[in-house]
Amino acid sequence: MARVLRMRLLVVLAVTLGSASAQSEVQPLNDLPNPYRTVRDWGHPPNGVPWAAVTAVEVSSDGSIYVIHRCHDNSCAGRPEPPILKFDASGKLLTAWGEGMFVFPHGATVDAQGNLWVTDEQMKDGKGMQVFQFSPEGKVLMTLGKAGVASDEPGLFDEPSDVAVAPDGDIFVTEGHSGPRHGNDRISKFSKDGKFLKSWGKRGSGNDELNAPHTIALDSQGRLFVGDRNNNRIQIFDQEGRYLDTWRQFGRPSGILILKDDTLYVADSESWGKDEPGWKKGIRIGSAKTGKVSYFIEDLESTTEEHSGAEGVGVDAAGNVYGAVVRRQMLEKHIKK
What we know:
The chain is globular and about 45 Å long. It has helices at residues 2-17, 20-23, and strands spanning 36-39, 54-59, 65-69, 84-87, 93-97, 105-110, 116-124, 127-134, 140-144, 160-165, 171-175, 186-190, 196-200, 202-203, 209-210, 213-218, 224-228, 233-237, 243-247, 255-258, 263-268, 282-287, 293-298, 310-315, 321-325, 330-336. The chain is built from two helices and 26 strands. It has one domain: 6 Propeller (Neuraminidase).
C-alpha cells in the first residue's frame, strides 16, 4: 500500500510541475518531412530597390500579403523607402507606405477586421517604441506607446517586439529583444480602444519569466503562445497572464503563426551552437492542440551561425508558407508540393 501511495504521489507531483521539465529533455526535431519546394524570387520592393532585412509577413483574409522590411540594410532611420509592402496573391505589388514613420519595424499581425498592426522596436530622433494599427489602405487608426520614449511605465514600451489581437479586440504586445537595451521582458494587454489593462512577466528563465519574448500568437481557445526566444521555448498563457504550459519541441522561436484550425507554424531563426545544440534552423509545423511537430522546412543555411533563418512566417489560403529572413535580407516562398 505504501508503494502504491508513493507512486500516486509521484504522478501528482509530475502533473503539478507541468511539462516544462520534460520539455527540457526534448531531442532536436530535424528529420521530419518537408512537403514544400522553395522559391526566392517572389515579390519585389518598389523602384527596383533590393530587399532590406525582411522581418514579418502577414496574410489578410482577402488574400493580400503584407511584407515588412527595414527600408535599407537593417534600419529605417532617416530612410525614404516604405517599410510596409502590400502584394496580391500573384506577387504583384499593390501599394506601399510608412515612409519616415519607423526606426526598426519588427513584428506584425492582421486583425479580424483586416487591419495591419506593426511594432517599432527601437528608437531614434524622437521616433520608435510604438505600435501602429493601419487600415488596409495604410491609414493610421491607432497608435500605442509614446514616440521616442522607452519606459516600463504602464502603457509605454521598451522594445515592443510583436503584437497579437484577440477576436474581441483586446491587444497583446510582447516587449523585449536581444539588443543593447534588452527591453521590458513582459507582455502588455490593452483594450480594443487602446486603454492599458495590465502587464505580466519579468526577466528570467522560470515559469512566468521571459528573456526576449520575440513573438506572440493566439490559438482557437484564446491561449497566448509566446516565443520566449532566449529561453529556447514557447510559453503558453491565458489572456489574464496565468501560466499554462511550456513547449520546447518547436526549437528556438522567433516567429509564431497559428491558423484557425490550430495548425502551428514556428520560425526558428537562431538555433545554432551553444544556444540550441543539435537543432537546425527552419520552420517547424505542427499542432497547437497536441503539440506534435509534423513537418520541417529546413533553412538554406541551417547550421551556419553567420546568418539567421526566417524570423517571420505567413501562410496563404493555398497553404503556401512565407519566410521573412532578416540577416540574408530576402523573402522566401515555400510552395506546397
